[in-house]
C-alpha cells in the first residue's frame, strides 16, 4: 500500500461511518483520531499510568462504547485544547500510519 486517506469534516457529518466502511472496502486499516483523545481522557479520569498503554489497540476501532460517556467526552474536549497533547497524538498517528494503507478520520 502506498498511500493513506484522511477524512475531515464537521461534527457528526459522517466521517467515522464513511471512513470505517471505506477502510473495510479497501482492506485498509482505520484510525479515528477522536478516539485517541477519548483514550487519553479515559486514563486521565481513571488515574491509570498512561505510559503502560499504547495506542496500537485503537487501530480498526470505532465507537468503543466505554469511551463515549459524558465525562470522557468532556475530558477529551478539554485535553484536546492542550498543545502538547495535540502534538503527542499527531506524532502517534504519524508513527502508526507510516506503513500506509490507513483511513484516518478526525
Ligand atoms: N450517510 C448518512 N446518513 C444518515 N445518517 C448518517 C450517515 N452517516 C452517518 N450517519 C449518522 O450520523 C451520526 C454521526 O455519524 P458519525 O459518527 O459517522 O460522524 P462523525 O463525523 O464521525 O462524528 P464526530 O464528529 O462526532 O466524530 C451517527 O449517528 C451516524 O449513524
Ligand atoms: N482530530 C481531532 C479529533 C478529535 N478531537 C477532540 O477529541 C474529542 C473527541 O472526538 P470525537 O470525534 O470522538 O467526538 C472532541 O471533543 C474533539 O475536541 C480533536 O481535537 N481533534
Automatic annotation (TrEMBL):
InterPro entries, per database record = Cytidylate_kinase_dom, P-loop_NTPase
What Gene3D superfamilies does this protein's entry cite?
P-loop containing nucleotide triphosphate hydrolases (3.40.50.300)
Q: Ranges for the Cytidylate kinase domain?
A: 5-55
| EC number from the UniProt entry | 2.7.4.25
Question: What catalytic activity does the UniProt entry give for this protein?
Answer: dCMP + ATP = dCDP + ADP; CMP + ATP = CDP + ADP
GO term, biological process aspect, one: nucleobase-containing compound metabolic process
Q: Name one GO molecular function term.
A: dCMP kinase activity
A Pfam family this chain is assigned to: Cytidylate_kin
Q: Does the keyword Phosphoprotein apply?
A: no
Q: Which domain of life is it from?
A: Eukaryota
* Keywords, sorted A to Z: ATP-binding, Kinase, Nucleotide-binding, Transferase
Q: Does the keyword Acyltransferase apply?
A: no
Name of this chain's protein: (d)CMP kinase
Amino acid at each position: 500500500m502506498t498511500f493513506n486517506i484522511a477524512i475531515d469534516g464537521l461534527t457528526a457529518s459522517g466521517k467515522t461511518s464513511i471512513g470505517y466502511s471505506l477502510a473495510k472496502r479497501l482492506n485498509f486499516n482505520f484510525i479515528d483520531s477522536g478516539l485517541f483523545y477519548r483514550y487519553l481522557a479515559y486514563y486521565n479520569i481513571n488515574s491509570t499510568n498512561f505510559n503502560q498503554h499504547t495506542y496500537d489497540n485503537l487501530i480498526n476501532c470505532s465507537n468503543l462504547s466505554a469511551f463515549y460517556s459524558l465525562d470522557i467526552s468532556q475530558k477529551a474536549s478539554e485535553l484536546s485544547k492542550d498543545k502538547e497533547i495535540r502534538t503527542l497524538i499527531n506524532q502517534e498517528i504519524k508513527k502508526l500510519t507510516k506503513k500506509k494503507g490507513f483511513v484516518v478520520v478526525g
